[in-house]
Specification:
By secondary structure, the protein is of the alpha+beta class. It has 29 helices and 28 strands. It has an 8-stranded mixed β-barrel with strand order 19-20-22-23-24-25-26-27, surrounded by 5 helices. A 6-stranded antiparallel β-sheet has the order 8-7-6-11-10-9. Strands 2-1-5-4-3 form a 5-stranded antiparallel β-sheet. The chain starts with 21 loop residues before the first helix and ends with a helix.
Length: 772
């Protein structure tokens, strides 16, 4: 049946079977030869040429014809006659396309031929749809040239058309594949992609209808994907179809993971339950192929339905395989995108939303609360002593604990609430829409804290983990998500300071303290840049000689407004912020430079003692940095003593010993400061390459009034002597303390009894007077 699909022309099928009517065609060929002879009288011995010409063009499967200037057929080969629906050339000669085809198609042909007649220019290789399709989409490549008389006058046109339907189908397939792959690359929705894929296959296979079904997450049901040409009622009826060994073509294919071809749905037992659903559509056969992942796991099915009973041809099988493959690529790409999107917005370990997703959603949640007379409560919590669990039981156990805690928090909140893992052992809980009652809020949070603290069995042992929680309420204690987080974070650190395992609600006092801390931090950083630090030196005296043999370098901050600030006021902040490392480097360099200057000035030789912070000591290649300072200041290593605290050393005994040996190799002396206040073991102490122990002032202060302090001090002195170590007592202020230390065998003291810490100039004067 003729139909217009473009402004191009349709012609009849090229593949007519000329063997079916051999006799008729022979007679027609004879008549054609007679007609040619009448129109173009043959020259002598031209009759044979006309015969062979007629035989030749009748064996060509292309359309070959000639028309006069009025568009009337003059001659044509047999396939042209047959495909125009006529029996003989006699029926065609003298007729125009307007006599044979609908006006709109004939007019398109006439317009093309008129252009050739008027311009005398041939037209080569135009692609056009065939007018007669014979139930399939057919394309022709047509060329038309002017037909001229012997004198050169144009008396008509000669045309030839070749069937290029297969090539056009291949081109359409390639274009469709490219378009589909582009849709995959651009992340188009799966439904849109499936719709386009099915339409492409249906365009290549007229009369065939396609369907895509997707396997559900539980792997038990098929869900509607796309079926643009199938009856909507049928699609709705099979949506949610349970797969199995006798569940139609698609349900069975998904169940067994192999292609299922049913040539007649009304005769196949696989369709016994579903055939009535398909009867109104007139479809008879269904061929279903599983859509597989790269790991050969079933993702869904691709099916074709035909109105005729039968099985797919080789061409149809190729298109089915191609469509199923493309569908598998699209599904896997979409799942990969979903996984990436999930990972970008969720914590990989616990599955909780992460901070990125929280920040994307929280603004909208707060805006909704703003419209209601309620609170949004943000709690920032940190698990107490989680690092200890990680270090002692391993990261795998720590991860398992985090997953359990995350599950408990999720179970303890409502659907409208949010639980977010910020990182490590820190979490955010947002309770969305609570009454503006402090007791209600705290009660809800206590329930969550109690759930977290329930015992858990890991590695055959029962563990309990508590949490410290800081709370800020919207809108009273923060108008934005950023303010709420910052304030809840401050409250959480306050909970840590108060002994952990408690809840603290944000207050303005916390904000003021945090602001003051931030300001102090900035001032400390500026002090380092402006060189506001200075050193005082406290002499260390030998009780045997009564002379100064060493000095401890003590840091001071010369604040431009507050004057001299004791290290006790800023060293903890410097430790917390990491500024202690550059400050400590400055102290070491300045002390070494000062001692070298005194030596160059001819003052008595002595040792300078410098305190080392834990952050400094853990710095990579710290021994090499000390060596560099000694080289820079030209000070011999034997004049430098570094004081290390017990707690610093015991954090990582093997690492500390390695660093201490590296310092010893340089020639630097080592001392343990504040001995007796830490938790060093005797077994570890004997391995430390130290020269001196410093008795902490806390044991000296109450001597001779406190018998316990006297006993401890005596024990430390005795221990040092047995280990071959020198011992020095700090904080010595009275004659009685000096007498006790001398009797106990302590040979060195430091404290106000002899001298308070002095500025460099005053200490130099003291040294000069001692020399005199």
């Amino acid at each position: 049946m003729a139909r217009k699909t473009s402004r191009s022309i349709r012609y009849a099928d090229l593949n007519a079977d000329d063997n079916a009517e051999t006799r008729r065609l022979i007679d027609a060929g004879s008549r054609l030869a007679e007609e040619v002879a009448r129109l173009f009288p043959p020259e002598p011995d031209m009759a044979d040429r006309h015969y062979w010409l007629e035989a030749m063009i009748n064996h060509v499967p292309d359309y070959i014809y000639a028309k006069d200037t009025a568009g009337r057929f003059l001659i044509a080969n047999e396939v042209t006659v047959a495909d125009n629906g006529l029996e003989s050339l006699r029926d065609l000669v003298g007729k125009t396309d307007f006599d044979l085809h609908p006006h709109e198609f004939a007019q398109a042909v006439a317009d093309t031929e008129r252009r050739v007649l008027e311009t005398g220019e041939p037209i080569f290789g135009i692609e056009e749809r065939a007018i007669v399709t014979k139930d399939r989409d057919r394309w022709l490549m047509t060329s038309k040239v002017p037909l001229r008389s012997k004198s050169g006058r144009i008396i008509g046109i000669v045309g030839i058309s070749r069937d290029i339907s297969d090539r056009k189908a291949a081109e359409r397939l390639l274009e469709g594949q490219a378009r589909l792959l582009e849709m995959i690359a651009n992340g188009k929705p799966l439904g849109e992609f499936f719709h386009e894929l099915v339409l492409l296959i249906e365009a290549l296979l007229p009369g065939i209808k396609g369907s895509i079904l997707l396997l559900s997450e539980d792997g038990r049901h098929l869900l509607h994907g796309a079926a643009p040409s199938l009856d909507a009622g049928f699609c709705a009826a099979i949506h949610g179809l349970e797969i199995g060994p006798a569940a139609g073509s698609c349900g069975t294919a998904a169940w067994c993971g192999e292609q299922v071809i049913v040539s007649d749905v009304f005769a196949d037992p696989l369709w016994e339950e579903y055939a009535p659903l398909l009867r109104p559509s007139g479809l008879r056969s269904c061929w279903s192929t599983p859509i597989l992942s790269r790991e050969r796991k079933v993702l869904g099915t691709f099916a074709l339905y035909a109105q005729e009973v039968g099985t797919p041809s080789e061409q149809q099988q190729e298109l089915i395989a191609m469509a199923a493959h493309l569908a598998g690529i699209a599904i896997e790409r979409k799942r990969a995108e979903d996984r990436i999107g999930f990972m970008a917005h969720h914590d990989a370990l616990t599955g909780l939303p992460n901070r990125v997703l929280f920040e994307e959603q929280v603004a909208g949640m707060l805006e909704e609360i703003r419209e209601r007379d309620q609170w949004a409560v943000l709690a920032f919590l940190d698990l107490d002593d989680f690092k200890l669990i990680n270090d002692s039981l391993g990261h795998a156990t720590g991860d398992e604990l985090l997953k359990i805690v995350a599950g408990r928090m999720r179970a303890a909140v409502r659907r409208s609430d949010s639980v977010v893992r910020v990182g490590g052992d820190e979490f955010i809980i947002l309770l969305n829409g609570l009454p503006k009652e402090r007791d209600v809020v705290l009660s809800r949070l206590e329930d969550i804290r109690t759930a977290i603290a329930m015992p858990v069995q890991l590695q055959g042992r029962s563990l309990q983990v508590s949490c410290s929680m800081g709370v800020a309420c919207f809108p009273n204690q923060g108008k934005t998500a950023g303010e709420l987080l910052a304030n809840a974070d401050m409250a959480m650190y306050r909970a840590k300071e108060l002994g952990r395992n408690n809840i603290q609600v944000f207050t303005e006092e916390m904000a003021a303290r945090a602001h003051e801390k931030l300001q102090s931090q900035e001032e400390l950083r500026e002090a380092l840049a402006r060189e506001e630090f200075l050193l005082h030196f406290q002499p260390q005296m030998s009780l045997e000689t009564g002379r100064i043999f060493a000095a401890e370098a003590l840091l001071r901050w010369q604040h431009p407004v507050r004057g001299i600030i004791s290290p006790a006021a800023f060293i903890p902040l410097a430790e917390e912020t990491g500024l202690i490392v550059p400050i400590g480097d400055w102290v070491l360099r300045t002390a070494c430079r000062q001692l070298k200057a005194w030596q160059d000035a001819g003052l008595p030789p002595l040792i300078v003692s410098v305190n080392v912070s834990a952050r400094q000591f853990r710095e990579r290649n710290w021994a090499a940095r000390v060596a560099a300072v000694l080289e820079e200041t030209c000070l011999e290593a034997r004049y430098l003593e570094l004081e290390l605290t017990e707690s610093l050393i015991m954090q990582d005994v093997p690492g500390a010993i390695a660093t201490m040996h590296a310092l010893e190799a340089i020639g630097v002396h080592l001392a343990i400061d504040d001995f007796g206040t830490g938790y060093s073991s005797l077994s570890a102490l004997k391995r430390f390459p130290v020269r001196r122990l410093k008795i902490d002032r806390s044991f000296v202060t109450d001597i001779p009034h406190d018998a316990d302090d006297m006993a401890i001090t005596s024990a430390i002195i005795s221990l040092a002597q047995k280990l071959g170590l020198r011992v020095i007592a700090e904080g010595v202020e009275t004659e009685a303390q000096v007498e006790f230390l001398q009797k106990s065998g302590c040979g060195e003291i430091q404290g106000y009894f002899f001298s308070q810490p002095l500025p460099g100039e005053d200490f130099e004067v003291l040294l000069s007077s001692e020399r005199r």
